[in-house]
Amino acid sequence: xxxxxxxxxxxxxxxxxxxxxxxxxxxxxxxxxxxxxxxxxxxxxxxxxxxxxxxxxxxxxxxxxxxxxxxxxxxxxxxxxxxxxxxxxxxxxxxxxxxxxxxxxxxxxxxxxxxxxxxxxxxxxxxxxxxxxxxxxxxxxxxxxxxxxxxxxxxxxxxxxxxxxxxxxxxxxxxxxxxxxxxxxxxxxxxxxxxxxxxxxxxxxxxxxxxxxxxxxxxxxxxxxxxxxxxxxxxxxxxxxxxxxxxxxxxxxxxxxxxxxxxxxxxxxxxxxxxxxxxxxxxxxxxxxxxxxxxxxxxxxxxxxxxxxxxxxxxxxxxxxxxxxxxxxxxxxxxxxxxxxxxxxxxxxxxxxxxxxxxxxxxxxxxxxxxxxxxxxxxxxxxxxxxxxxxxxxxxxxxxxxxxxxxxxxxxxxxxxxxxxxxxxxxxxxxxxxxxxxxxxxxxxxxxxxxxxxxxxxxxxxxxxxxxxxxxxxxxxxxxxxxxxxxxxxxxxxxxxxxxxxxxxxxxxxxxxxxxxxxxxxxxxxxxxxxxxxxxxxxxxxxxxxxxxxxxxxxxxxxxxxxxxxxxxxxxxxxxxxxxxxxxxxxxxxxxxxxxxxxxxxxxxxxxxxxxxxxxxxxxxxxxxxxxxxxxxxxxxxxxxxxxxxxxxxxxxxxxxxxxxxxxxxxxxxxxxxxxxxxxxxxxxxxxxxxxxxx
Length: 695
What we know:
The protein contains 29 helices and 27 strands. By secondary structure, it is of the alpha/beta class.
């Protein structure tokens, strides 16, 4: 490459003497048209000036004598350089033609403007080539555009992820080549953007983009794009490795057995929390130490890791710790592909703890046997009473109390709202008693008219009344002989019959209607009511002496709203029951179950059973959704206080049923008996009983 003036000067040049005429000079210009000026030298060939083509043209234009010598017309304002003048200096000289002189100042060459431009061009090309080589050697992709969005620069890395060759991409619109770069946006906003993740032609890259300025004017934008696909993969692998390492640490720490991991030199790398607990050592203190140090310090009697490294096989030892504990430890070598030990993993158990566990296990076994026999006894007591479904502590206490009093033959009074399951409790008591193999008779004292109830309970003799059966008929008390009779709604029993019931309780005998001969009976009486008997006693509606006779062992069954833990088990029990009954396979959505839990259930378990059956039958889909709930539940139910209100539009029939239910519940709660409630509502007692039982 050119470095000095002598490298680029024209040595074969034309010159004229000072006495040369203009005409002769003009002939030289005509034969050397590329020349703009001719050097003028003296006899010693030293440069004196230049005769220019411009001067010649001026002479001709002014029609002056062309035989004049050039010495009077030449310009002496010229620049001469030495042969060793550097190219860099030449490029900084602003002149049309340079004279190159030798050691004696004689002219040795000429450098024209064309020569300088050629040098400049080749220098620029070389510089651009070096710049392109440097850019192409860069790992990151580089793309530059002008302010018309045309690509003016692209390196090989960028060409690779764009899929375009550099030659095809140069001068092409960036939006056609690679529209994802965001470089046009940088030109619009004139703002640099750094560290942006993007996807270009399937490559994941991070870009830094900046505007290009020239004299405070934006001329384009340049972007550097780093392919991070490999880095992403490495990062994911590293993250996966870190996750696995954390999982391994978690697994090691979750093991009850002590775990110790050491390297091929016996240096501790990992210990489990169990080893910390057993040894009394802190992992932050001993990790990185060699097992030989722990032996020397007397922390451990011997190391399974060191023995494994010596013997190159699994080793089992009894390790004594400084804490006084003993550990049964097994060390196992881990080999690489060349059969070299790279790790030793030791696992062990605290023998002291094992001995304590053995003692504890024996004690637990004794307790287990005790609880097993108690549970077996409880199951035997429950027998076949599979209809009582509960999970609440309140109902568990009720069932346990029922099983306990079933063993004695006392009279029982079961209290609780309508629908809580009083009859089920009565059945548990009967089936768990010594009378379980005999009859269990039930009667609702409020469901039978007063004039029929006496003959139903006590029977009648032949001819006792018109239509009496020949030979008479035994009453329910006689049918329950040696068994149990369940008198439901005892609060509705007329006063006239309360006297006869009191005699049964006191004397153990009954007299049939129309008869005079008392009959001995052996019956256990279980009574139930949802009424407030104390209030009825105070109002002279219930005999006080009968109340105290019945209230020997009271059992109060809590309302369903007071034991919401039982709602879900009962719901699934009824769902299974009605699925089997109707050959369906319905399920319930969570929002339905939530609504069932929040509802107050004034009708208790009976109401829940009826609603589950209604939803199973009426829902159109296999899953029961919120819309399948009765309007009463969807409206949030009702309260006992304040005026009746309707939360949303519902079918008129549903609204009427809801109002009926509210009024009947309020009347029963206020008056305590179906008879008084019916009187207050202006309907028959049987209607109250029927609607209450249908809730």
